[in-house]
């Protein structure tokens, strides 16, 4: 750990320490003026005026916000004391990126079969939760959604356009200036203003759509570092997503009243991938785990990891498993753990990592230990980001294995927290065009070919065997025997898989429609919940209602309203 911290400190430029706060504060009031009333000097009580500063600024966004709020209020009234208003001291939101219902079913069977069961009777950890419902995932401009718009709905209570992070649908996608005045407060930001500890855990890049929506405002989800900003965005003075993670604390402090400014101390736990977006495009800044000649992508010369360390001198920067294992709970400490240049590895490939990577369950375990040091409670978002990536590749093996890893992480959270004071929600941002069909016998290997109870292959009309699992679109069939090769060109349609082992990790299922990447699906996804407010997820909901369940159970907006100017 000392060596890593020393590496960070030696990269700090002389001007970094004095410029961080100044750059962060500059212009933020203009960005959030309509939401937070930056011009006021005196703290206000949680009146309707104070609350108004935390709700969306435009009519379109208010429509979504109040509709979701009203639905939960009506639901709470119907269930009475079971609604648990304000009873959640802690909130954990698990997001299985791309984890549609067919994925859950197949993963349940896969996990059971890994334990020697037939499989269908098995239960994933979140199957045991007492309440469940459905979430409608469409974006305001797309029937089949993307992760930026869907996570924005869950974390702000407002639906928005595809590709947009925590800005209302009034924004013009890819036009940074159009987002000014339309930014939305997130549940994580409200938790910060309330004095709670906050954390982000993901197997994707920490700047990717799902984690990014918790702390950043962006008209384009791909603006993960300054090299990806458009000319218009640069001219408008907009910050890239990685930079917004570093300036998060200062930006939020600028809207807090003097009396409550100490409530905001930054995101205590950030764990995932994406180092490349925090480092300059210069080999001199490569980390000990760099796999490319030049690891960083930033063109502005900024070393954001060093800037983070300057903000948090007692904080711990982590790049590998050994340093991760040494992390100990400390109420005064912050953690920035970036385990890879881009996304973290699939679980099946984890052993190949140079410095080693923890599992999602291990990161969740550590994050809870760190965050629960705060006596005011915590808000934690945990994403199994690579379920989605495996599906896009047409690879059911990794999609199911990553879903089981999410189940393991949820099991840890259920064990380490109490249903008396912790609301846990498990859901997905969207589904995929992933199918499970063909009348296989019960207990047939879920990744295998369709067979009868006697083991006989069931053939299609062309006399060819087929698998239980498949995709409507994508690149189609591939059989990468070593599991690490390139999958090659698009190869859709039927193939003779009679002599192919379809259960190994390098097999990619057949697809019908040829596309460079398999697409999301547009159907509803499941919501599971336990703890205070969990009953409120029961039923069929617009996706933005998930925010209002968390807000109702934890009183985030009411508490945060005391802290804004």
UniProtKB/TrEMBL annotation:
Active site location: 147 (phosphoserine intermediate)
GO molecular function term, any single one: alkaline phosphatase activity
Superkingdom to which the source organism belongs: Bacteria
Binding site for Mg(2+): 97, 208, 210, 383
Cofactor(s) in the UniProt record: Mg(2+); Zn(2+)
Binding site for Zn(2+): 97, 388, 392, 429-430, 520
Residue ranges that the Swiss-Prot or TrEMBL entry lists as coiled coil: none
Cofactor binding mode and count: Binds 1 Mg(2+) ion.
Entry keywords, A to Z: Magnesium, Metal-binding, Phosphoprotein, Zinc
SMART domains: alkPPc
Family: Belongs to the alkaline phosphatase family.
PANTHER family: ALKALINE PHOSPHATASE
Name of the protein in question: Alkaline phosphatase
